[in-house]
Amino acid sequence: MAVRRLAEQQPTSFAFSEANLAWARKEITKYPEGRQASAVIPILWKAQEQEGWISEPAIRFIAEFLDMATIRVLEVATFYTMFLLAPVGRKAHIQVCGTTPCWLRGANDIKDVCRHRIHHDQFHISENGDFSWEEVECLGACVNAPLVQINADTYEDLTPESFGKLLDDIAAGRAILAGPQVDRSFSAPLGGPTTLTDAALYATQTTEGGEGAPLTDSSAKKPGDAASNRESPMPKPPLTNNPDERRS
Length: 248
Ligand code: FES
Fold this sequence. Notes:
- This protein is α/β, with parallel strands linked by helices.
- Helix content is 31%, strand content 11%.
- It has 8 helices and 7 strands, in the order H-H-H-H-E-H-H-E-E-E-H-E-E-E-H.
């Protein structure tokens, strides 16, 4: 893993907004007295949500807020790559997965788009201030490689063209759709299922023993009868302890 250092240029101070401060105070009540340091990750995350990145004053503020040594908060912020240690683009910070499955499926082409449209080097902000990018390790959606993450969502099955359109839409403030950018539902095969396509496989049994409507995704979540009301064979009586009765 690359060495992660704080940015050279730092703001002079950090403070939570009123709403975020109230949220942070409530967050630490989730932990037992004296264990408020356990809230360090969610509170760092809230600071990043507010500012876009984690600054050195934010680390000091959080250390004081949680009664921790500053070095302990610094350790957490610099260990987890989800914490961004330098300012990022105003409209989006693009995290491009460069791990093997994404690499095999064209991640280098996606990085080339970043180099041309955002900045030649990762962790630099585009000239207009809108975008920044970085290469990250596996984002856990390899089945739809290659992909990028923007904030909490992933944008998958990208080509240089579809990724370029994504950047255009973000720049223009148009709504973007997370998930696959091709004709695919979640991680199902392109173009729809190719196996187990016989509808009879999904038919339900009626009480008369015939076939009912096929199961849908929500079928499994429908509440059924309580177990005590279901028709079932009578339970067997417990084994007796009397050896004479056991023999008979
Ligand atoms: S390798 Fe890219 S998401 Fe796993």
